[in-house]
Design goal:
Order of helices and strands of chain A: EEEHEEHEE
Oligomer: homodimer
Distance between the termini of chain A: 56 Å
Number of strands of chain A: 7
CATH superfamily of the largest domain in chain A: K homology (KH) domain
CATH architecture of the largest domain in chain A: 2-Layer Sandwich
Shape of chain A: globular
Strand content of chain A: 35-45%
Radius of gyration of chain A: 19 Å
Largest interface: A-B, 78 and 78 residues
Number of helices of chain A: 2
Helix content of chain A: 10-25%
Structural class of chain A: alpha/beta
CATH topology of the largest domain in chain A: GMP Synthetase, Chain A, domain 3
């Protein structure tokens, strides 16, 4: 008996125009443009998003959005979510690639009783985040759960 | 005899703060913040960069910046560079991931004599772009080369 579920596919469009030296302007339909370019260590400028930073940002956000989606599905409410991420660009066999991204989310909850549910949801995030599934880097997820009452205001 | 070249590694940091519903604010040191969130097809809002769009933008820009770097190395001058890219998010074995990204750069050159050099450089771009090396998607690169004299002003 076939139990296969049918999934839709989606397309994401981007446009890019070279500006000068090692930078350009990237755009997506109906979104604000972003200046993008090589980072200073590769002869670019500081103050402009680098592709490497965008990849790390995409992963960090995807993991948060996956958490938000699963939390909503399980009716878990949370007070705040903040996450620091760091990607490591290293040369492997003569080619540079992002080999590792560490993601350290801090989820603030209103009740001790929610910690277990939050932990369970977070354990599902990495395997279900679309960007995590799309990159070759080793993704290290190290979540922390805090009580709202313990967070200084 | 050891001929190994030593390569440096680099770190790229990101910070993310959840805002409301399925969106947040992503930041990198000294760069303008970007609103990021789920796309409308995953219960998010239009007008906010989605992680999927950021991944496609990162690849598109990385390929341009690799081209710019190689062109500079070979003293090839070009007049303009524009590139449309499209990423396909599809479900494979129950998990969504970006399975394919097509990148269609248009490079405008001032002389017919530069086409061959530009073509040779572009052929090296995919294998050397850091982001291309960091993702699992099938990257399809379809460049076009135009003469500045043929481009309507």
């Amino acid at each position: 008996m076939a139990t296969g579920k049918t999934y839709k596919s989606f397309q994401y469009r981007n446009n890019l125009v070279w500006d000068t030296a090692r930078r350009g302007r990237t755009s997506a339909p109906d979104k604000p443009d972003i200046e993008i370019g090589s980072p200073p260590e590769f002869k670019g400028e500081a103050g402009v998003w680098a592709p490497e930073e965008m990849l790390v940002a995409a992963l960090n956000a995807c993991m948060m959005l996956t958490f938000v989606s699963f939390a909503q599905g399980k009716r878990l409410e949370f007070v705040a979510y903040e996450s620091a991420a760091e990607g490591l660009l290293a040369n492997v066999d003569g080619k540079y690639r992002i080999v590792e991204v560490s993601v350290r989310p801090i989820v603030v909850l209103s009740s001790e009783a929610d910690i277990e549910a939050a932990r369970t949801i977070m354990a599902e995030v990495k395997a279900n985040c679309f960007i995590s599934n799309s990159i070759t880097a080793d993704v290290k997820l190290a979540p922390q759960f805090q009580m709202a009452s313990d967070v200084p205001t």
